[in-house]
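thoughts on both lines:
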Amino acid sequence: MGSAPASEDSPAGGVYLPSGVQTAVKVLIVGHFAVGKTTFVGALSEIRPLRTEEVMTQAGALVDDLAGTKDKTTTTVALDFGRLTLNDSLVLYLFGTPGQQRFTELWQDMTRGALGALVLADTRRLGQSFDVMGVLEELGLPYAVALNDFDDASAEHDLDEVREALDLLPETPLVRCDARDRISSTHALIALVEYLLTRNAGSADDTAGTAVSAGDSELEHA
């Protein structure tokens, strides 16, 4: 789960981007409440992630569904932000969104300028993913789905069964991941990037798609 090594030429131990970076790609990490978005961004970010977590209160229990989250004590109230530099010219900016329905309008605004989204899902609470995917579909933002494996999940569900349960299109990527693990999280992000490349393949003028294509192999070794 360690951070990517900082460039020797980068000042302040990798806090600042290398001078040669020309393209920045915005990717959203979305999902329902307590599905692991903050953990996912933290596992991948090469810089200390920006977090806007607050302690959960009894008042929040009146409006948030806390089922299956007995050990959760904090919640994201605005966003999580992390950065992953793929090569000397391309950087990914990761925006983790709050999961409660009352914050939906907030993260809808965050979709502006995003190339795509990775939806984290929990097999114990699959039904809660529909609202998230519905918003992305309404906004026309392409997405992939990653099942975050929790230690206390009762069983490992077959991916075909999960795909059917979520009513996913055949081309929508569906993978497993452990949001705590950097390698596993990287593979989930690769699934999204490869999907975006496929969608953008027919557009020669799509600068972001071309840049991501150049950095895709770098992501495998991030």
About this structure: Confidence is low (pLDDT under 50) at residues 1-12, 54-64. Residues 53 and 76 are 4 Å apart (CA to CA).
